[in-house]
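To close the section, here is one more complete example, presented without commentary so you can practise reading it yourself. The ligand is zinc ion.
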Amino acid sequence: MDLKVSQVSRAAVFPQAVELPPRVIGRFGDDSSGPTLIVLAAVHGNEPAGYRALRSLFSRFEKDPVELRGSVVGLVGNRQALAEGRRFVKEDLNRLWLPDTVARIRAAGDLAGEPEAEPEAEMEEARELYLEIERVLTRAQGPVYALDIHTFSGPGPAFVVFDDSLPNREFALELEVPRVLGIEEELEGTLIDYLDTRGVRTAAFEAGQHDDPASVEQAEAAIWVAMRASGVLGRSGEAEVESASRRLAAAARGLPNLFEVKYRHAIKPNSDFQMRPGLRGFQDVARGEQVGTEAGAPVLVPQSGRLLLPLYQAQGEEGFFVIRPIKTPWLALSARLRRLRLARFVHWLPGVRRLDAAGRELEVNLRIARWLPLDFFHLLGFRRIGQVGRHLFLRRRDEGKGPRDVEF
Ligand SMILES: [Zn+2]
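Output:
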């Protein structure tokens, strides 16, 4: 397969001449042994902090090489949108990694560098990114990790989100900022969801507000910590990791360290959603409190908790989330239950049916299994993938990560 991306095809898709950032920001270390860390930046084009952090870190590595036991590669997600300073050009690059689209991306990627006829902007970005990721996965000899760096439009502290399988958890918990569980159940087609299906251990780091210089520093700190957590970093970088960890912990001071998503406010198309000015991430909100307007009507918080990702930009599908702290012993309990592999027996419960022989997917009839809350399935390592009426569909998270084929 020719992995070169045709310049001719790109010019056809993006006729406007803007100076584009490179797809590969840098590549350091040796991928023939040890783990690999992929750092993704600017999957949303108006979130340049990760890109700036990688540029600064890599120019430092060039002058003053750091000892590595594996390799680290920095990739730009949406080059065109980054050059134009907007979230996306036609569609959100972080919502299109769905089975059908991935099949199209793969098919286009396999066509010796030529995209399908007249692809949409983000489909071309996805095709190029897919090829670059495949290149990394093909060459990697050890485990592969990915840290996807984002920022947000409102003010608020940094945090990390991850699909809560034990390998992802082990990686993400090294970042000492609040951890938010369950966002992946609310969003479809994210890039890290796709990487997860490819056996990559993943976490997404939300570094701070889009254009705050502190977000670049937070992103750089997160990359240092991720380099150690993935095992990529040799001993010589220990002092930097320590100061990076302290920096992250200082920014998170006073906040509980574990939350779960309780509510996602999906914006209706063309509804002129407006967030009430002055709201911050992680601030307390009470049930019934007005946090914005939509289609001329007040938007009220449906349940008390803390506000996450209040939207202060034009592009985006989520107005805000409501999260609630959960107790940290939950993590130890769920790890223990998963190691006991209790998920194997869960279909013995009334109202719970296996959808495949291995029991990876379940259908829960909520009329019968009314007494089983979603939390119970979370503990055992399942995530919600959908609901039709009173039927809940769940999939077991992959607890034994290793390179494997796409399941789509
Ligand atoms: Zn983002």
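Once you have examined the tokens, check your reading against these statements. The chain has three domains: 7-251, 258-325, 334-396. The chain is about 30% helix and 25% strand.
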